[in-house]
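in:
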């Protein structure tokens, strides 16, 4: 299975998703940089009756391995973390060893972070991977480790499952590895 090479994002590539629950919209720009890739996005939405506005930036190597990320909300909350030499660091608390086994991140308010393990790993149909994720919920911004399972069902079609079995979704992706439809949560515009 092949995706478009990261160099194709030199002039930037944009995508938008709308939330299927509540009110919400995300605009993402993915751009090739000299040392990898940068994803910048703005989100507005509503979750559990509360409205929010936020931005995030994710810097990756050319193979979609996350180096750092920053999240900021319009009400002043935020989180910034970086992965150096396989160790995660937070801008306020220093080294956070609980996350060192995580290569990928999952930001709860966006389907984009599903692209990270899909693009980072080489896949063949039927292959399944259990992945430790650094998960960041947008209500608290308190990260924790969660295990997720990705299965390649067909070229550009993946099943996503939480390891505890509480959620499963089939995720079709485009030639860039970006989610097209995330049942019950997001739909590409």
């Amino acid at each position: 299975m092949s995706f478009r090479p990261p160099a194709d994002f030199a002039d930037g590539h944009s995508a938008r998703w709308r939330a299927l629950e509540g009110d919400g919209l995300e605009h993402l720009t993915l751009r090739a940089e000299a040392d990898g890739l940068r994803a910048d996005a703005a989100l507005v939405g509503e979750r559990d009756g509360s409205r929010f506005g936020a931005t995030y930036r994710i810097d990756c190597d050319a193979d979609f391995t996350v180096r750092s990320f920053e999240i900021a909300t319009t009400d002043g909350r935020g989180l910034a973390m970086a992965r150096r030499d396989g160790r995660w660091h937070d801008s306020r608390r220093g080294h956070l060893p609980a996350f060192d086994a995580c290569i990928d991140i999952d930001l709860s308010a966006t389907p984009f972070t599903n692209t990270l393990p899909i693009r980072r790993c080489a896949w063949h149909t039927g292959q399944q991977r259990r992945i430790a994720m650094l998960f960041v919920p947008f209500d608290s911004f308190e990260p924790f480790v969660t295990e997720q399972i990705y299965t390649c069902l067909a070229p550009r079609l993946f099943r996503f499952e939480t390891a505890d079995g509480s959620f499963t979704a089939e995720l079709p992706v485009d030639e860039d590895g970006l989610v097209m439809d995330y049942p019950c949560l997001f739909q590409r515009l």
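note: The chain has a mean pLDDT of 94.
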